Amino acid sequence: MQQPVRIAPSILSADFANLGAEVRAVDAAGADYIHIDVMDGHFVPNLTIGPMVVQALRPHSAKVFDVHLMISPVDNFVAAFAKAGADIITVHPEAGAHTHRTLQLIRSLGKKAGVALNPATPISVLDYIMDDVDMILVMSVNPGFGGQSFINSQKDKIRAIRQRIDAVTAGTSRVIDLEVDGGINAEMAPVAIAAGADVLVAGTATFQGGPDAYADNIRRLRGPLV
């Protein structure tokens, strides 16, 4: 079943000169997760942060650290991010040779395992790993930069994955979250939720206006379901 909506502000859009304060501010404003985009300048055309930054931010919030690894090869860094304080570690199938093994590695470290699907990645990549994922992330933009517009074709993908999650978890206590990342704002959030998303990543839409605006921004993203 679709779970209550959770908002995961992406610190990619935060003030990098004051990251600790920004994390505390969105935590206090009602964020459910702290979404941390890790980019290597190789798998995606941007370079962001590493495990040391995650470790430095960990004392600033007790909220779930939702770490999205856009790096390749990814297996070499999983343990470092787990040790740094990640709670959920999400990887791309294209970022390593053996996705199943990578998911097993994440879970062996006591973390929740997520798999991310780029806009052109078919949902068939989920065929033999549904038992090993705690979260599926649909990228509704091509990864690498914030501030992009939602790709409309991803609505059908979200719906299809929602159906697959519901079929796999029916009659069990299992929970698989369906997260959407890219172009999420007050207008697109209800579209993603209606399609089946229950975790929304929002960078620009959360951090615009400065700390005094964060609580209102998050409330607008939750929409009328709250």
Write the CATH architecture name.
Alpha-Beta Barrel
Number of domains: 1
Largest sheet: 8 strands, parallel
* Top-tier CATH class: Alpha Beta
The helical percent reads: 25-40%
Strand order of the largest sheet: 1-8-7-6-5-4-3-2
Mean pLDDT: 96
Please tally the β strands and state the result: 8
Number of helices: 8
Examine the coordinates and then state which fold CATH places here, giving the name of the CATH topology.
TIM Barrel
Q: What ranges have pLDDT less than 50 throughout 5 or more consecutive residues?
A: none
Walk me through this protein's architecture:
There is one protein chain. The chain has 226 residues and is α/β, with parallel strands linked by helices. It has a single domain, classed as Alpha-Beta Barrel (TIM Barrel). Helices cover 32% and strands 19% of the residues. The chain has eight helices and eight strands; from the N terminus they run E-H-E-H-E-H-E-H-E-E-H-E-H-E-H-H. The chain has helices spanning 19-28, 51-57, 75-84, 99-108, 154-169, 189-195, 204-207, 214-222, and strands spanning 6-9, 33-39, 64-70, 88-91, 112-117, 135-139, 177-181, 199-202. Strands 1-8-7-6-5-4-3-2 form an eight-stranded parallel β-sheet. The protein starts with 5 loop residues before the first strand and ends with a helix. The relative contact order is 0.18. The active site is at residues 37, 181.
